[in-house]
User: Which sequence fits this backbone?
């Protein structure tokens, strides 16, 4: 009888501990920390390639991008996670590098939670556009137009392994159609091909391409939208990071109706902060390292309390 009582007492204590939240894993924090902030109706992300901050901001070779930085909001202390490209893209979409340390072709992401899965779970729509896309079922092969290491979504089995999801990872012919129709998803990710993103071309060529693309994207996002334009990493010799080693200091620009105009923010931040800011705008929880207390929400890029209620 004494043994039975002891066993019952253990069960009761275990249930009490679980109820208090010590035995069960606590949910990630809300990305907005429970504080009011802008709620864009639509959010776009464009990622260009391999330029450190000083190579772009103030450069005569990038007049359009610099005008965008002056009229919109510019983060001046923003850093990539590391080198090379792919870990940065995984960090931007998954909140951690998830076991990805280099530009691998057949590697597997250690964990399938990502921002587009969060959006699906909360009823938001999304689509990802890649110019020259080779495959949406796997990383595929490098071509003279497309590099799979710039496409994080083909590394998530929860995207590439689900027909409805991989069908939303598309080429630029679909982007052209959607922009002409003026119909884009709540969240869109856009990556130009390697001769347009600055990787295999000059900064001037990337700037000229951006001037044509960004104008159309901003129009489609509408007056309650925001576009984030950034780079995956700085030049390979740039090892600066947010509080330590990283992938270099890079520019992050917010443009569009919900972006705070003619603003510079000097908050120390990295790709996890951009992910957290996107999640906060949609009222989501912060994934992995995006949810760390040290990861800021970049409220300074956005007008206060605009967009969705």
Assistant:
């Amino acid at each position: 009888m004494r043994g039975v009582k002891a066993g019952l007492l253990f069960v009761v204590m275990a249930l009490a501990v679980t109820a208090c939240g010590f035995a069960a894993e606590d949910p990630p924090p809300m990305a907005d920390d429970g504080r009011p902030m802008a709620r864009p109706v639509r959010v776009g992300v464009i990622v260009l390639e391999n330029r450190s901050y000083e190579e772009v901001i103030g450069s005569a070779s990038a007049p359009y991008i610099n005008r965008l930085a002056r009229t919109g909001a510019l983060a001046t202390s923003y850093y990539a996670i590391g080198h090379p490209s792919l870990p940065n893209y995984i960090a931007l979409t998954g909140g951690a590098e998830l076991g990805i340390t280099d530009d691998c072709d057949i590697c597997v992401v250690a964990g399938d939670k990502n921002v587009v899965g969060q959006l699906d779970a909360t009823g938001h729509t999304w689509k990802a556009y890649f110019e020259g896309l080779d495959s949406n079922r796997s990383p595929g092969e490098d071509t003279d137009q497309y590099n799979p290491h710039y496409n994080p979504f083909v590394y998530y089995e929860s995207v590439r392994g689900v027909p409805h999801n991989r069908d939303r990872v598309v080429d630029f012919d679909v982007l052209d159609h959607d922009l002409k129709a003026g119909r884009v998803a709540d969240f869109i990710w856009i990556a130009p091909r390697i001769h347009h993103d600055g990787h295999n071309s000059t900064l001037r060529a990337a700037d000229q391409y951006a001037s044509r693309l960004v104008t159309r994207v901003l129009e489609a996002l509408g007056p309650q939208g925001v576009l984030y334009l950034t780079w995956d990493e700085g030049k390979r010799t740039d090892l600066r990071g947010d509080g330590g080693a990283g992938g270099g200091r890079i520019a992050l620009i917010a443009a569009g109706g919900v972006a705070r105009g003619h603003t510079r923010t000097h908050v120390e931040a990295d790709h996890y902060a951009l992910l957290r800011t996107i999640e906060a705008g949609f009222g989501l929880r912060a994934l992995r390292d995006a949810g760390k207390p040290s990861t800021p929400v970049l409220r300074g890029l956005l007008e206060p309390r605009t967009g969705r209620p």
